[in-house]
Amino acid sequence: MRLLVTNDDGIDSVFLHELVRALRGAGHDLFVTAPKHEQSWIGAAKSRHRPVHATAADRGFGCPTWIVDGTPSDGVNIALDHLLPPGAGPEGVVSGINVGLNASLGFIIASGTVAGAWEGALHGLPSIAFSQDLTIETYDRLKAHGGQPDSELLRSLLTSARKAAELTPALICGTPARSFIVHNVNFPFPHDRPADVHRTVPAQVVVPRLFSPAADDGTHRLVFRHGEDLSPASPMTDRAAIAAGHISHTILDYRKLGHP
Predict the structure, then answer these.
(1) In this structure, are residues 55 and 64 in contact, taking their beta carbons and an 8 Å threshold?
(2) Can you list the alpha helix ranges (DSSP code H) found in 26-150?
(3) Most buried among 1, 33, 158, 243, using CB within 10 Å?
(4) Residue 95 within a domain
(5) 105, pLDDT greater than 90
(6) What is the average per-residue pLDDT within 61-71?
(7) Total structural domains in the chain?
(8) 251 by DSSP, 3-state: which?
(9) What is the dihedral of CA 77, 78, 80, 81, to 10 degrees?
């Protein structure tokens, strides 16, 4: 398949690199566009008030690659409309693998990874967002080591990347064009052995108090919280599936927003 790949953790994210490697290894024809710097939790923001640069780069992917000094949505828009060669339009957009889960309403709506896939859907393309759950301790170690995963995380990431490459063709081919659908897939942690895929719905999680009280200089800082899960016992939610060691697959059909 011909695919556009993006992420929100930036061009140098190992998680992006392993996804690209797995998709290429499965024989897919890729284009890559990724932010210059991490753009997590930025949602579907567009760089409205400043020009955006897109620069061709070689990151060893073996496919055309661009670095965009903007948001994931900027990158997907610019790539689809201006960067890809004429007649080389992709069959779908794949976003990820995100560093951390994108499960529950609060996280899905805020996610730059999901937004990158959503931008593909806005262009009429089937789209997938892949995310890798982590513990807070594992995330802290990853950041402390400059984004390089330890052995346990690397095993999970490699397993997730291979599974992402396996799932992608059926999800893209099974989604009609211009359907405004994003497939949101979250991998459990650890994920170093085969896991079942469960169809899920977004968990109903409230996430208050995301910012600290004002410091002496009057500023507030983001404080990560998983939030409080208010979901009913059924149907199975994305958070519940991940906690049970399953792969969560939620179909985000944006045409259903506002329907009774």
Answers:
(1) no
(2) 72-78, 105-110, 112-122, 136-144
(3) 33
(4) yes
(5) yes
(6) 97
(7) 1
(8) strand
(9) 100
Count Cβ atoms within 10 A of the Cβ of residue 139 and give its class: 0-12 exposed, 13-18 middle, 19 or more buried.
middle
Instruction: Tell whether 221 is covered by a domain.
Output: no
Helical ranges in 88-178 per DSSP H? 105-110, 112-122, 136-144, 151-173
What span, in angstroms and rounded, lies between the C-alpha atoms of 34 and 63?
Answer: 13
CA 217 – CA 82 distance, rounded (Å):
43
pLDDT at 225 over 90: no
Domain that holds residue 68: 2-201+232-256
Kindly list the strands in the beta sheet with 29-35, ordered across the sheet, starting from the edge strand earlier in the chain: 54-56, 65-68, 29-35, 2-6, 92-99, 127-132, 181-187, 247-253, 197-199
| H-helix segments, the chain | 14-25, 72-78, 105-110, 112-122, 136-144, 151-173, 238-243
* Within a domain: 127: yes
Model confidence over 138-191: pLDDT tens digits? 999 999 999 999 999 999 999 999 999 999 999 999 999 999 999 999 999 999
Residues 235-259 have a mean pLDDT of 96
- CATH code, 119: 3.40.1210.10
Cα angle for residues 220, 224, 229 (degrees, 5° grid): 125
Q: Which residues of 201-233 are buried (b: 16+ CB within 10 A; e: fewer)?
A: bbbbbeeeeeeeeeeeeeeeeeeeeebeeebee
